[in-house]
Write a structure and sequence with these properties.
Blueprint lengths: L2 E7 L11 H4 L4 H14 L2 E7 L3 H13 L6 E5 L8 H10 L3 E5 L21 E4 L4 H14 L2
Bound molecules: 1,3,4-trihydroxy-5-OXO-cyclohexanecarboxylic acid.
The site of 1,3,4-trihydroxy-5-OXO-cyclohexanecarboxylic acid has 10 residues, from loops.
Amino acid sequence: MLGRVEVMHGVNLDQLGRRDPAHYGSLTLAELERTIDAGGRELGLEVHFFQTNHEGEFVQHLHRLAGVAGVADGIVLNPGAWTHYSYAIRDALELTRLPAVEVHLSDVDAREPWRRQSVIAELCIARVAGKGPEGYREALERLCAEMSR
Ligand code: DQA
């Protein structure tokens, strides 16, 4: 096993399958996570998932990853709308000191101007947006490359 990766989904991502398919596709979160898990296995990764609609819970989960050595070697995160303004999540991500990749299903740079802003980007080794579920596979590959450095 190459490493353990925590895949974290933020606010409204539990509603996948009901959100605008033009931006988010038609997979439910459970289906998306199965796809991500399969990709992770192919890469030799152990993937764990977390989703919440509560910002404080997202922060506390990052604290857990920061506090317990070995619980995760890397993070893939799609904080949803929190990406664009949550300094609390940004600061908690910094605490983890783990390599992280930011993922968005939709092409955030081609949508409303406020979606172009990411307060976590400077802490991430990469950002993948607009590639749908495939973007998570790419994020896992980026983490693999980072872990085997
Ligand atoms: C999203 C993009 C965000 O702007 C939006 O608020 C989401 C999902 C994406 O995956 O494309 O909820 O992070």
